[in-house]
Amino acid sequence: MTRLMTSGNQTAVTEFIFSMFPHLHDGGLLFFIPLLLIYGFIITGNLMIFVAIQLDMALHTPMYFFISVLSFLEIWYTTTTIPKMLSCLVSEQKAISLAGCLMQMYFFHSLGITEGCVLTAMAIDRYIAICSPLRYPTIMTPKLCVQLTAGSCLCGFLLVLPEIAWIATLPFCGSNKIQQIFCDFTPVLSLACTDTSLVVIVDAVHAAEILGSFLVIALSYIRIILVILEMPSAEGRHKAFSTCAAHLAVFLLFFGSVAVMYLRFSATYSVFWDTAIAVTFVILAPFLNPIIYSLRNKDMKDAIGRLFCYQKRAGGIRR
């Protein structure tokens, strides 16, 4: 039952309905099981990467520090949306309260922006490591890594706050059906029964955030590739490319889907394409990240292998 609140001649909406999810008897279970398995893999994979990096002294370097931060953020990034999706797939009540919707938007976008900032810090780290290897140990100190991570979190969690505060003041009446798989700015703002022309400012803020990070990463990697191509040793070129390949793949997957979604301004997509793009950066990118970082990285695979060996030895000792 949809909860409504009457105020004068208008009926204020106090909760929203996700209209994109099928009912259980209409095939909801067919989506629920794969999504549950994917979510389990995302949590397990990122947790393994995070723990392996923390426990393995060989991985206590700036590059792996940022990978561990990214894995930690990925766990919470997916947890803001996927559990609610799973609930909607098996429940007759596909509703979310107004407060719950605002909270989901806030944490989803805050964590997403923080991830983008961490990816930018990783690009800067790779740039210094390859373009200024002799100065790298004195520049990328543990203190600077912590400062960059703290700055990324501050940037992510403060930038979104004004937008959420503004949306919280808007009246919602009439339709309460969100045509998306999670609460996002455009679908929610389209339900407001007042002027939302300020959304242009919101779009401009998102564009600045995305383009700023994109330009820093792109320029860093253009310079990195030019330096690598000038290396005389084929082995040196291969090693340099391999250390950057995983980060570049994650960057293209994450920023590519985010750019298509949030750099469209007045352009509109069909509901199908809106949903498909959302699935890419909400589900597919987090699913592929642990695979990219573990399978394409020998040091990471060795660390995870040592982690499992340690657990087996510990289990044998207890027995």
TrEMBL record:
Residues 45-293 form the G-protein coupled receptors family 1 profile domain. Keywords: Cell membrane, Disulfide bond, G-protein coupled receptor, Glycoprotein, Membrane, Olfaction, Receptor, Sensory transduction, Transducer, Transmembrane, Transmembrane helix. The keyword Cytoplasm does not apply. GO terms for molecular function: G protein-coupled receptor activity; olfactory receptor activity. GO terms for cellular component: plasma membrane. The chain crosses the membrane at residues 29-52, 64-86, 106-124, 144-168, 210-229, 241-265, 271-292. PROSITE patterns: G_PROTEIN_RECEP_F1_1, G_PROTEIN_RECEP_F1_2. InterPro entries: GPCR_Rhodpsn (IPR000276), GPCR_Rhodpsn_7TM (IPR017452), Olfact_rcpt (IPR000725), Olfactory_GPCR1 (IPR050939). The keyword Disulfide bond applies. It is found in: Cell membrane. It is a multi-pass membrane protein. Putative odorant or sperm cell receptor. Belongs to the G-protein coupled receptor 1 family. This is Olfactory receptor. It comes from Catagonus wagneri.
